[in-house]
Write a structure and sequence with these properties.
Distance between the termini: 28 Å
Number of helices: 5
Order of helices and strands: EEHEEEEEHEEEEHHH
CATH superfamily: VTC, catalytic tunnel domain
Radius of gyration: 18 Å
Strand content: 35-45%
Number of domains: 1
Shape: globular
Largest sheet: 11 strands, antiparallel
Length: about 250
């Protein structure tokens, strides 16, 4: 069995709001955030507040995660890599109305080729759940993120801006280059994460820019973009009705 570092996080009353904004508005929103919040300590880049992320999402042959069927609509299994790091995170994100739970194992990038189609070589908890839920690698999503943090009355708050989103089919656990089909071109996905109630600074942000929450999932948007594109996609993706994108929920990436 692979030697890993395992991490768990459970937050009661965790909340998450998402917003879709046009790219030509994002510069003003970013400057507002920079003036009031701290950059994520793990971020870098020219402005000191950005990083690049690539995520391999798992789904069933009949797209139960995409379609949010039963418990598949509350949890996502994925492999996430930050930039060109030599390690990746095997994750389960579980969300209910009452809490947010994350479990992740840190493994070397070099171990990825063996993880599928032989997931038994993965950390035990991940391998068991992938097998039980009949999950397989489906889609790789890459994007740039500007990330900020602050302290609210109920703990840490987080504000992120995701753009340059691209998707490609990927049925392996080996990351491809950050290429693929543009997703949400000309737009930015903003996410707020906090506990219990919206902190005052985030309320001000929403009110000042007249933002309206929108149910959005980068994974579902990516599947829709692949289906609409001329890129060859697996048959299980081709059968997904694009109209389902309207039902994409907030339990996103």
């Amino acid at each position: 069995m692979l030697q890993t570092t395992d991490l768990r996080e459970t937050r009661d009353a965790a909340r998450e709001l998402k917003f879709l904004v046009a790219a030509d508005r994002s510069a003003a929103l970013l400057e507002w955030a920079r003036a009031r919040l701290k950059p994520d300590p793990h971020a870098g880049g020219p402005s000191g507040d950005e990083y690049h992320t690539s995520t391999l999402y798992f789904d069933t042959a009949d797209q139960a995660v995409y379609r949010r069927v039963g418990s598949y609509g509350r949890s996502k299994y994925r492999i996430r890599r930050y930039g060109d790091s030599g390690v990746v995170f095997l994750e389960r994100k579980l969300r209910t109305r009452a809490l947010l739970s994350k479990r992740r194992s840190v493994v070397p990038v070099a171990a990825l080729p063996a993880l599928f189609p032989a997931p038994g070589t993965a950390p035990k908890w991940f391998a068991e759940r992938i097998a039980m839920r009949r999950l397989m690698p489906t889609c790789q999503v890459s994007y740039r993120r500007h990330a900020y943090i602050g302290e609210g009355p109920h703990g840490l708050m987080r504000l992120t801006f995701d753009d340059q989103i691209r998707a490609q089919t990927n049925g392996t656990t080996v990351f491809a280059s950050a290429d693929g089909v543009p997703v949400n071109p000309g737009g930015v996905i903003i996410e707020m994460k906090f506990c219990v109630e919206t902190p005052a600074v985030l309320k001000q942000f929403v009110e000042e820019f007249s933002l309206s929450p929108a149910p959005v999932s980068k994974y579902r948007l990516s599947v829709d973009a692949l289906v609409r594109s001329e890129v060859a996609v697996p048959a299980r993706l081709q059968c997904v009705p694009p109209a389902l994108s309207a039902a994409s929920g907030v339990a996103g990436a």
